Amino acid sequence: MRFAELLQRFQVPHPQTCLLTSRDQLATHDFEFGEAILKPLSSVDFVSKRGVKGYMAGSRAEALAVVGKFDFPILLQEFIPGPAHRGYFLEGFRDKGGRVCTLFARQRLRMLPSKLGNSTATVSVALSDVGNAMAILESLLHKIAYRGMFSAEFKYDERDGLFKLIEINARPWWYVEFAQLCGVDVCSMAYRDALGLPVDAVDTYEIGRHCVFALNDLRAWKTGRHIGDVSLPSLLQTWTQSASVPFHWNDPGPALSHLGSNVMDFVRSKLTGHPGSLPKSP
To answer: What's this model's pTM, rounded to 2 decimal places?
Structure first.
């Protein structure tokens, strides 16, 4: 909620967000319902307990029907309409002197679950493809005197033509190695900056390169195969030309561990009758 208040103070385009402290407040709040997300302040424990990041609600009545699954306080946030590929990420590093040493843009292609989940396929795109997002992010990082690596998630809102800021992860992210493969090595930048060494700026990277989280991407394709009419052969062909997370031929351990963890979750959900957690990722 403090992040939403920060964005409000600096007039950064973002989804309508409010803090709810009781069921009665939800019943009477003047929140403008279209499609909305109910989610906890911290998702880690909630995901382990419920298997989801939050719940979608298309009306106040639907929100009231699921609010009992939460412990207050919780967040009620507008869902920006549009498919997964309207999601974009701006990632990079800002050094101790306040210089944004690099920016890397990528577009989400698919996600799982389809509306409130994690990216399963992504492609690097030009900075010009993210419109006003770059100026918004650089201004915000300057105002809060941020230092370090970052991954900022935006979604393009077709209703007003704005890229709206969803969140900023102030840590390495799932696809941080993909950024490095495209030419943007933020981990090395963070290391050098921490040691007080100069950090070279990077202003170019490979555009049009793909990366997939194959097991999760197959599940995402199956649940949304009617979107874009992507055939299975086309999907598999794209995979052969893509970078992969977390599998690597020279280090298969993380992928095998991930697969085993998901199999155990599936078996546990069948035995207990409770839904498993979100597809795990590194």
So the answer is: 0.87
